[in-house]
Amino acid sequence: MTSHAERTASRASKRTTRPQGAESAPNSIVASSVAPVSAEERRARIAEAAYYCSQRRGFQPGGELSDWLCAESEIDAALGAGPRPAPPG
Hints:
Blueprint: H1 4-16, H2 39-56, H3 64-79
Helix pairs in contact: 2-3
């Protein structure tokens, strides 16, 4: 017969076990989407991801462009879009 501690440990491991090949998403903003997203949705995701980049560096001024470009790269990679061409002009 198993002890109470063994049963509890067994239940806990069953709750935390993921199916083979399953990975947790590091960030729901970056997690890829099955359906294509509009330009506005993409921009909103990039803006939110850039906010979190800025938060990680303590919101110090001077890194806004770097935050945006990093977030844009992350979101495009998650969406499977690759880098976007620069707008004309």
